[in-house]
Amino acid sequence: MNRRFVVMGTLVLAIALFTVAWLMQERSAPTELATAAPTGSALIRPHSPILGPEDAPVTIVEFFDPACEACRAFHPVLTDIRQRYPEQVRIVMRYAAFHDGSDTVVRLLEAARRQGLFEPVLEALLEEQPAWAQHGSPQLEMAWQAAGEAGLDLEKAREVIDDAAIDAVLEQDAADVNTVRVQQTPTFFVDGRPLQRFGAEELMEMVRLQVEARS
């Protein structure tokens, strides 16, 4: 079967399933222009990985789990947004390690960040997610293999993966997940405001309005 067809099919199915879940918990949103949450808030921490320009005027915060199928399905949507607005939008990544083994993969991502390889390793882990993220029995060595193929020095990564600073990142993000009441992944905020209705078009429209308002 054509691999692109399989990926797109997964995207449509995952977004459809999670749309149902999100519609069961509607969220009100203010009508005025939203402002980005300050660094140091429960939405954005100084340690949070950022994709895109750090000083971009519009901020998407994504609470994600590297083993989450819907996060994988939504990743091309975020890539599209970054390509449309390369200077106007940044994505702040927050960890919500809900699945078995996800905390270890988050540590792997943090080790990759220390080597300047956060994004390529993230891409590789999401690409190979069906192989390693088997719910209930994650195949973590396959995640390590994918990271290595993306260029990660695995020996150096294993030396730092249990570092106290990485412990602190996981602990802070877990606390913020509870504070913000994130119950599923992915959960999105645009300039501090939650995505009112879950969906790719809804996210892109919310971002478009914020970009235009700040232009």
SSE layout:
Layout: H1 3-23, E1 50-51, E2 58-64, H2 69-84, E3 89-95, H3 102-114, H4 118-127, H5 129-132, H6 140-149, H7 154-160, H8 164-180, E4 187-190, E5 193-194, H9 200-214
Parallel strand pairs: 2-3
Antiparallel strand pairs: 1-3, 2-4, 4-5
Structure description:
- Strands 1-3-2-4-5 form a 5-stranded mixed sheet.
- Helix content is 53%, strand content 10%.
- Helix 1 (3-23) crosses helix 2 (69-84).
- By secondary structure, it is α+β, with helices and mostly antiparallel strands.
- Residues 1-8 and 17-31 have low confidence and may be disordered.
- Helix 2 (69-84) links the parallel strand 2 (58-64) and strand 3.
Q: What class would the helix/strand composition place it in?
A: alpha+beta
Number of helices: 9
Shape: globular
Taken in chain order, the helices and strands follow as HEEHEHHHHHHEEH
**Uncertain ranges:** 1-8, 17-31
Strand line-up of the largest beta sheet: 1-3-2-4-5
Tell me the β content.
5-15%
Q: What is the helix content?
A: 40-55%
| Mean pLDDT over the residues | 88
What is the radius of gyration computed over CA atoms, rounded to a whole number of angstroms?
17 Å
> What is the count of β-strands?
5
Q: How is the biggest beta sheet arranged? A: 5 strands, mixed
The quaternary state of the protein chains shown equals single chain
The first-to-last residue Cα distance is 44 Å
